[in-house]
Amino acid sequence: QVYVVFSEELKCWCRALIESVRSQADHYQLGCFLVDYAKYCSVASENIRVLAGAFVKIPYRAKKCSLHCTKPLTLHLDFCENTAKIGPAKRWDTAAIQHFRNLL
């Protein structure tokens, strides 16, 4: 379901999908994907609203996507055998993400 959240970074209300919820001392922190800006942000629970009728039907300007058949790789170091091999990883490391963004 799409909600409306206030983005502190953009200083405006944006449509968002809620990705995660984290409990804080006095409120909840929501991890959101802004569907019109293709950005991830963190929002306090008091800055979320239900999306009103007609706005639900407006198509998103951004869509989540992934590269077809592209899996993350990482360098595995074995200090005992003094070797380094490239192998599969569970997630992309920050250097690979930054390199990809620079290419775009």
Automatic annotation (TrEMBL):
Record flagged with keyword Iron-sulfur: no
Catalyzed chemical reaction(s): ATP + H2O = ADP + phosphate + H(+)
Keywords: ATP-binding, Helicase, Hydrolase, Nucleotide-binding, Repeat
Residues making up the signal peptide according to the UniProt record: none
Entries under SUPFAM superfamilies matching the protein: Tudor/PWWP/MBT (SSF63748)
Taxonomic superkingdom: Eukaryota
Domain Tudor: 3-68
The enzyme's E.C. designation: 3.6.4.13
InterPro entries, per database record: SNase_OB-fold_sf, Tudor
Any GO MF annotation of the entry: ATP binding
GO term, biological process aspect, one: germ-line stem cell division
Major enzyme class: hydrolase
PANTHER family, sorted: ATP-DEPENDENT RNA HELICASE TDRD12-RELATED (PTHR22655)
Protein's name in the database: RNA helicase
Lineage, opening ranks: Eukaryota, Metazoa, Chordata, Craniata, Vertebrata
Gene: Tdrd12
